[in-house]
Amino acid sequence: MTNPAIDIQRVYEPLPEQGHHCYLVDRLWPRGLSKEKLANVEWLKEVAPSTELRQWFHKDPEQWTEFRKRYLAELNANPDAWRPLAEAAGNGHITLLYGSHDTQRNHAIVLRDFLAKHATGHK
């Protein structure tokens, strides 16, 4: 069994080639981007951190470790939100798109690592 191929990238970067499944995993639609630009991207806002957790973390990004812990708890409590992504990751290469400016500490990193452990149907 191999690890699923799950990439993460900022939604503002050029999207991967056709046939590559991309998912927007932010609760809010990214500023300045039209729905047409992301027409082939599935928006799964329910898998994003809760509004309360997102706002708390943005006030104090130094709380990265605690944010990860709280977000993982939210994910574990809401399998219906992440299960479609785990299935997709198990069946092929996917990309999680996020809007955060911080490429080192954001929820997509936590989600990618979580999905890698829960992906089903690995090729």
How would you concisely characterize the structure shown here?
Helix 2 packs across helix 4.
Structure notes:
39% of the residues lie in helices and 13% in strands. It is an alpha/beta fold and 123 residues long. The chain has one domain. A 4-stranded parallel sheet has the order 1-4-2-3, with helices on one face. Helix 2 packs across helix 4. The relative contact order is 0.27. This is DUF488 family protein. It comes from Paraburkholderia guartelaensis.
Give the tags.
alpha/beta; globular
Alpha-beta classification = alpha/beta
Query: How many β-strand stretches?
Result: 4
Cα-based radius of gyration, to the nearest Å: 14 Å
Please give the largest β-sheet.
4 strands, parallel
Mean pLDDT: 91
Distance between the termini: 7 Å
What percentage of residues falls in helices of 4 or more residues? 25-40%
Count up the domains: 1
H-E order: EEEHHHEH
Question: How would the blueprint of this fold be written?
Answer:
Blueprint: E1 6-10, E2 21-24, E3 42-43, H1 51-59, H2 64-77, H3 79-91, E4 94-98, H4 107-118
Parallel strand pairs: 1-4, 2-3, 2-4
